[in-house]
Structures are given as structure tokens and as C-alpha cells.
Design a protein that fits this description.
Elements (H helix, E strand, L loop, with lengths): L4 E5 L6 H14 L6 E5 L5 H8 L4 E5 L16 H6 L4 E4 L2 H4 L6 H13 L3 E6 L3 H5 L3 H16 L8 E4 L13 H16 L3 H6 L1 E5 L4 H8 L6 E4 L6 H10 L2
The protein binds glyceraldehyde-3-phosphate.
The site of glyceraldehyde-3-phosphate (G3H) has 14 residues, from strand 8.
Pathway: Carbohydrate degradation; glycolysis; D-glyceraldehyde 3-phosphate from glycerone phosphate: step 1/1; Carbohydrate biosynthesis; gluconeogenesis; Carbohydrate metabolism; erythritol degradation
Catalytic activity: D-glyceraldehyde 3-phosphate = dihydroxyacetone phosphate
Subunit structure: Homodimer.
């Protein structure tokens, strides 16, 4: 039985005052339940959010990391730094990094390896663009993005990771993948991993991300291969985020 995870990706939103209000209200309203909850604030707020979430069941994540442990890499942030501030997980390969910052599959694989090397749980994001979907290339793209990591890190590395299927066309657009479209992509990913290791495939959590809201979370999370969500915009709205957590039973 896979335990669901709902992770809020705040992207480049927040301020000291807004974060304090958001986390305080989320903690106050957190529904009972078995699902894991995490928030991923911008780097500069990790220490603040670590303090606010201390002792709660809300885990702390970062949105990206450097593939290097330290060095002359201006503007980059290394895994050990995230760990020191209390992060336990980190997103790698988010589409806003792949498409907005030109990260390729092999760089994403290096970041995945670095995350694990520094004791962080990598949440590997993958997903196709609208053009790729319309060209019938969804599975081809997912396979390429997944294989880049399994070939670099080995399939066994997925025992200590989470996947997040995020169709690029559904991110921040209000256009959600239907529960059936999400399920099909998740099932494809799981079956591809099962060809190499059935047990790892069975225990691996695959989150869905892309315009998840209170109103659609329950239907998406009800699909057998969907193990929670990576939530962008709705994670910044207290009642939306709490309802999504409640839907992840
Ligand atoms: O990381 C989260 C995803 O990019 C989804 O963002 P969204 O919920 O705002 O569409």
C-alpha cells in the first residue's frame, strides 16, 4: 500500500509575512489522515519555513539543487545546504527548470543523483508539452526522461525517490489532465519500471501535478496509479490546499 503525498510547490511566490500566515493556517487546519504533506518554498525562505513547520507533520522540500556539492557556482545551491536547513526532499527536473532554464535529461539525472547522495528524497518531475502530446509522443517523452535517470542512477535508486507526472500543458493553465489521462501516463511509467524491477515499481509513488484544485483532486487521486499530487497555485491558498490534502486519503 503506497502512502499518498501532497506536496505544495510555492514556485517564486511568498514573503516572510505571507509565508507565516500561510503555514500557520495550514497547520491549524491540517486534516487528520495518513497522507504525507510537504511544502517547497523558495530557497531563501527554507529556514523560516523549517522553523514554522518544526514538530509538525509537514515536511520541507526545495525546488531545485545543484548537481555539485560545493564550489564556484554563482547563484547555485547545493544539497548539503538544503539538508542543513531541514529539507528532506527536493524537486528535480520541474518543467519550469527544463523548459525555462534549458535543463536537459542528463543534467536532471545528475541532480537526482546529487539529491540522493546528500540524503534528500528526489521528486523527479516529468511530462510532455502540448506539441508532444498532439504529436502522439507522450510515452516517448516520458520514457526518455525516465530512462535518463534509471540509466544514470540504476533502477534500484527509484526505491528512494518519488515521480511527479506533470504534463506541461496543464501547469498553471487551469487545464487539468483528465483523471484517465493522468492514470494512463502513471500506468505507463509504472509498467516501464516494472520491466526492470516489479517490486520497486509497485512501491514507487507517482504524483500528478498540473492545475490540481480542491474541485478535481478527489477524482484524480482516486485513480489506482495516482499517489498524490504536486500542487502549484492551489498550495498558496489555505482552503484549497487543505481540501486537496483531505482528498488524498
Ligand atoms: O509543481 C507544480 C506544478 O507545476 C503544478 O502547478 P499548478 O498547480 O499551478 O498548475
Amino acid at each position: 500500500m503506497r502512502r499518498k503525498l501532497v506536496a505544495g510547490n510555492w514556485k517564486m511566490f511568498g514573503s516572510l509575512a505571507r509565508n507565516q500566515a500561510l503555514v500557520t493556517d495550514v497547520l491549524a487546519g491540517l486534516p487528520q489522515g495518513n497522507c504525507e504533506v510537504a511544502v517547497c518554498p523558495p530557497y531563501v525562505y527554507l529556514a523560516q519555513v523549517a522553523q514554522l513547520t518544526a514538530g509538525s507533520r509537514v515536511q520541507l522540500g526545495a525546488q531545485d539543487l545543484s548537481p555539485k556539492a560545493e564550489g564556484a557556482y554563482t547563484g547555485d545551491v547545493a544539497g548539503p545546504m538544503l539538508k542543513e536547513l531541514g529539507a528532506t526532499l527536493v524537486l528535480v527536473g520541474h518543467s519550469e527548470r527544463r523548459h525555462g532554464h534549458g535543463e536537459n535529461d542528463s543534467q536532471v539525472a545528475e541532480k537526482f543523483v546529487a539529491a540522493q547522495a546528500h540524503g534528500l528524497l528526489p521528486v523527479l518531475c516529468l511530462g510532455e508539452t502540448l506539441a508532444e502530446r498532439e504529436a502522439g509522443e507522450t510515452e516517448l517523452v516520458l520514457a526518455r526522461q525516465l530512462d535518463a535517470v534509471t540509466q544514470r542512477a540504476g533502477v534500484a535508486a527509484l526505491a528512494n525517490a518519488v515521480l511527479a507526472y506533470e504534463p506541461v500543458w496543464a501547469i498553471g493553465t487551469g487545464k487539468t489532465a483528465s483523471p484517465e489521462q493522468a492514470e494512463a501516463a502513471h500506468a505507463f511509467l509504472r509498467s516501464r519500471i516494472a520491466k526492470q524491477d516489479a517490486m520497486i515499481a509497485d512501491s514507487l509513488r507517482i504524483l500528478y501535478g498540473g492545475s490540481v484544485k480542491a474541485g478535481n483532486a478527489e477524482a484524480i487521486f482516486a485513480k489506482p496509479n495516482v499517489d498524490g499530487g504536486l500542487i502549484g497555485g492551489a498550495s498558496l491558498v489555505v482552503q484549497e490546499f487543505l481540501s486537496i490534502i483531505a482528498a488524498a486519503r
